[in-house]
């Protein structure tokens, strides 16, 4: 059973159903793989081995007694910014390094209700701020394709765990690309649904009007299973939208084998192919677009807001929301508290200075500045207006196309410890953040390798059109094999 970790979610579900293996055997296999290889990758902050095996035994018992939930006993893992009752939720931060949530996030609960088993919590950039996963209090995550390189961020633990075969699927969150960019760097598929599709209740807030959870898997079909499980209206999140969740998995089974993309108009925005885009990465994206055409799609020129403007807008608004959201971490109610405070002011100051890392502090300072009296109109209000214009440009583009295709990131994964400046790192988000400003669904899927490192193509859909993203990717993955590649570990 040494290849259990290469199976798709559907193959796992079938294997459990036909008793080729039990959930306990399956879970033990993944736990053994984590124990052997995760020292080098560092994708997990917490492995809940005992709890997972207990749940696997329960799943096997329930199945034997006639429980027919198809995903009963399938392993997965959660990004560590999702509250999990009785299990640490650190957010990759010293501030929450001892925080055990007293309740489950709604999406965690939804996934458990479908029978999935969580193997633990996945490493991330502190408070989901970052693009390289070097900003975790629990150490950097390593890219399984080259352990000297970054996995991307902030959901670098989720992407690297799926790529490494530690779990078939994992949750992530995406405020400005944190699912798509690490998916691209680690050669897996990652989808961020429409804002409002998945409840934010119990997901530690970074920038609330952008934050959205989503799914990582090796294929669109694997992602569809997990996304299906987690989505749905939640009255506990006022931005959750009461809209029926389509049967994405069922839709994928209907994708035609001959010319599956016939009639699909794929918008290609020139603004996302300009200077800054690595030429080899561009060549891989061009190749993938040719495959789309062979599958029946037509390419259409569209225009979007200059991504440099989008980048500036995001890096003003997201820190502003972060500075407000993170004000709750004061060393008093929960989280890290400094030793021997001299007085209340000292308690606040030192708890926050010692509990937050440099990048989080930088964002809090930028955001507080943008929100302060005298600057609010010039920065925050102005950026909100630009946000609307960015959305308008997307809506206009969608008048002539059904889906938009761009590179996910301008480069492949770079070296750990390269000491890039914050501005250089932010540039890596240039193609992903527009989607979050507009609340659109988006997905990254692998399209090949440059120098042995994966390249991802980003698809952007109309609001609520996750099905178009998944179906298009499924068609591509039916005709190509990049998503089946696995890194060689150890
Ligand atoms: N890299 C972006 C940032 O640092 C996006 C992070 C995210 O999506 N959580 O803000």
Automatic annotation (TrEMBL):
Protein's GO biological process: translation
Domain of life: Bacteria
EC code(s) of this entry: 6.3.5.7
InterPro entries assigned to the protein according to its UniProt record, in alphabetical order: Amidase, Amidase_CS, Amidase_dom, AS_sf, GatA
Subunit structure: Heterotrimer of A, B and C subunits.
PANTHER family, alphabetized: GLUTAMYL-TRNA(GLN) AMIDOTRANSFERASE SUBUNIT A, TRANSAMIDASE
Molecular function terms from GO: ATP binding; glutaminyl-tRNA synthase (glutamine-hydrolyzing) activity; transferase activity
Family: Belongs to the amidase family. GatA subfamily.
Function: Allows the formation of correctly charged Gln-tRNA(Gln) through the transamidation of misacylated Glu-tRNA(Gln) in organisms which lack glutaminyl-tRNA synthetase. The reaction takes place in the presence of glutamine and ATP through an activated gamma-phospho-Glu-tRNA(Gln).
Annotated catalysed reactions: L-glutamyl-tRNA(Gln) + L-glutamine + ATP + H2O = L-glutaminyl-tRNA(Gln) + L-glutamate + ADP + phosphate + H(+)
Active site: 79 (charge relay system), 154 (charge relay system), 178 (acyl-ester intermediate)
Keywords of the record: ATP-binding, Ligase, Nucleotide-binding, Protein biosynthesis, Transferase
HAMAP family: GatA (MF_00120)
Pfam families referenced in this protein's UniProt entry, alphabetically: Amidase
Gene3D superfamilies: Amidase signature (AS) domain (3.90.1300.10)
Organism annotation: Moraxella equi
Entry GO terms, CC: glutamyl-tRNA(Gln) amidotransferase complex
Domain called Amidase: residue spans: 25-470
Phylogenetic classification of the source organism: Bacteria, Pseudomonadati, Pseudomonadota, Gammaproteobacteria, Moraxellales
The name this protein goes by in its record: Glutamyl-tRNA(Gln) amidotransferase subunit A
